[in-house]
Write a structure and sequence with these properties.
The protein has 24 helices and eight strands. The chain is α/β, with parallel strands linked by helices. It folds into four domains: about 5-175, P-loop containing nucleotide triphosphate hydrolases (Rossmann fold), CATH 3.40.50; about 180-240, Orthogonal Bundle (Helicase, Ruva Protein, domain 3), CATH 1.10.8; about 245-370, Up-down Bundle (Zinc Finger, Delta Prime, domain 3), CATH 1.20.272.10; about 420-545, 2-Layer Sandwich (GMP Synthetase, Chain A, domain 3), CATH 3.30.300.180. The N and C termini lie far apart (about 70 Å).
């Protein structure tokens, strides 16, 4: 293999190369210099923080022929052989695949033999929490009283799974998450070595996405460089590769939520989907955006705590004046729940849209923390005059016959639609649906149409939520008005939803010989009663004869 990944190429070879773990490095160096080396160490912490790398450096340092300030020289025969992986003194064991009692018994037999060269035989057991209970018990006595030439280094990411009897026999070292500044500075050094030009803003986003892991940061950066090979790596390019979203989009989304502008919110989701953004990442990033906004809203002099640019800080302060803390807490709760649900969801977009609609419509929730937001929504409508009856003066004129010219002319009564008219509506439903309001238009994309009883237009939705939205009185009236305007006849719209456990085809609208529905299925298959299904079947028969 000619190419080596960045995280492997730049793996630390000395204690000086280890970043962000000074408390551990200093302690180990002092132990080596003072010859106070322990017999068992436990390295624990999140992935990519340097546990295995420090263990290998420590193994070389204790066997180095000419150590320098507690660090391996890297030049002697022992250092070179351990670094190359050819030394018999350093044994690396993957506990995930060697987790049985027999594997531990082999170690117990091997420790009886002194090292062939060097002073110490070092056992590095990675992912030690994967050992079985029997294996842990078999290791206890050897771990407690090993020969003076044996050192055990146990590494794990899940220290809570290790028995207390093991923990009490080891010196425990907790590797902390590496700060964003430390990761950025390290990435700058490596990019200068690699002669790759990268924007600092792009490096900061990579460091933030790595979540305290140096290995993850190098892997993400390696991926971005490969996608834009030979080019200067910009912030926008990093966002494209990682499927992330710029904070300006979050700002626009939040402002539309505050204004309760559902069509604009859904348009933003559509825009992000067309750009190929990852919705799980979007949800997590927006949650962090809301968290930062909450800190700005509730704290003074927060600039030193938040890792954001000056422009973003000014934007957050402006938005903090537009929203109340209880609203932010509700938003964070909803999106925190959403982030956990999206990991296993098949319809991620639907769940995201539902969560955003909840934010814009507090009346959809019954939780206690929504009451203030619901009251606030009513107060806003009252202030705008939306709930107050309006009385308008009008001039009244009388014609020669003494009638008031200002009198309303009664609307002519339209004839009822017949099955052939319903057929025509179904065939041309897309243009009608496109004329509806934003939210209704979005949900109608998932609708299936059929001829209902008494020549009604039956709209079948895949779930209760969609049916509740489309079936609202104002939405039905809007849809009936558009249909009547198009065909010149009165049509009654009925909205139903698929019963739980029944299949719903998500394909496009179609017209079949036995009615107007998807896949040739009659409306009664969507969970209607037998009586209603019989009426629909009779109506379908009449429609066929008429056709």
């Amino acid at each position: 293999m000619s190419y080596t990944a960045l995280y492997r190429k730049f793996r630390p070879l000395s204690f000086e190369d280890v970043k962000g773990q000074d408390h551990i490095v200093t302690t180990l160096q002092n132990q080596i210099k003072a010859n106070r080396i322990g017999h068992a160490y436990l390295f624990c912490g999140t992935r990519g923080t340097g546990k295995t790398s420090v263990a290998k450096i420590f193994a070389r340092a204790v066997n180095c022929e000419h150590p320098k300030d507690g660090s391996p020289c890297g030049e002697c025969g022992m250092c070179r052989s351990i670094a190359a992986g050819t030394s018999m003194n350093v044994i690396e064991i993957d506990a995930a695949s060697n987790n049985g009692v027999d594997n531990i018994r082999e170690i117990r037999e091997e420790v009886a033999y002194r090292p062939t060269e060097g002073r110490y035989k070092v056992y590095i057991i990675d992912e030690v929490h994967m050992l079985s209970i029997g294996a842990f018990n078999a290791l206890l006595k050897t771990l407690e009283e090993p020969p003076e030439y044996v050192i055990f280094i146990l590494a794990t990411t899940e220290v809570h799974k290790i028995p207390i009897t093991i923990l009490s026999r080891c010196q425990r070292y907790d590797f902390k998450r590496i700060s964003i500044d430390v990761i950025v500075n390290r990435l700058k050094e490596l990019m200068e070595t690699e002669q790759v030009e990268v924007e600092e803003k792009a490096l900061r986003y990579v460091a933030k996405a790595a979540d305290g892991s140096m290995r993850d940061a190098l892997s993400l950066l390696d991926q971005c460089i490969a996608f834009h090979l030979g080019e200067k790596l910009t912030y926008e390019q990093v966002l494209d590769v990682l499927g992330a979203v710029d904070t300006d989009v979050f700002s626009r989304l939040l402002r539309n939520i505050i204004k309760r502008d559902i069509p604009q919110v859904l348009d933003t989701v559509e825009e992000l989907m067309m750009e190929g953004r990852e919705l799980t990442q979007l949800s997590a990033d927006f949650t962090w955006y809301l968290r930062n906004l909450l800190l700005v809203k509730t704290s003074d002099n927060i600039e030193d705590v938040l890792d954001v640019s000056t422009e973003n800080m000014l934007q957050l302060k402006e938005e903090a004046q537009m929203i109340e803390p209880d609203m932010l807490l509700r938003y964070i709760r909803i999106f925190s729940e959403l982030s956990g649900q999206l990991k296993y969801a098949t319809q991620k977009r639907v769940m995201l849209e539902v969560a955003l609609i909840k934010l814009c419509t507090p009346a959809m929730e019954v939780e206690q923390d929504t009451l203030l937001d619901r009251i606030r929504s009513v107060e806003e409508k009252v202030e705008q005059g939306a709930l107050a009856p309006t009385v308008q003066e009008r001039a009244v004129y009388r014609d020669q016959a003494g009638r008031e010219s200002g009198q309303k002319v009664p609307k002519p009564e339209l004839p009822n639609a017949i099955p052939e008219d319903i057929q025509e509506v179904v065939k041309n439903f897309r243009p009608i649906a496109d004329e509806t309001s934003g939210m209704l238009r979005t949900f109608l994309k998932k609708a299936r149409l059929s001829l209902g009883g008494d020549n009604r237009l039956l709209i079948v939705m895949p779930g209760t939520l969609e049916a509740d939205v489309v079936g609202k009185e104002e939405h039905r009236q809007e849809l009936e008005g558009l249909i009547e305007k198009r065909i010149g006849k009165r049509v009654e719209v009925e909205v139903r939803h698929v019963e739980e456990g029944r299949h719903f085809n998500s394909g496009g609208l179609s017209y079949g010989k036995k009615g107007w529905f998807s896949g040739g299925r009659s409306p009664r298959e969507y969970g209607k009663s037998d009586e209603a299904g019989t009426k629909d079947a009779e109506a379908d028969g009449r429609a066929d004869k008429g056709a």
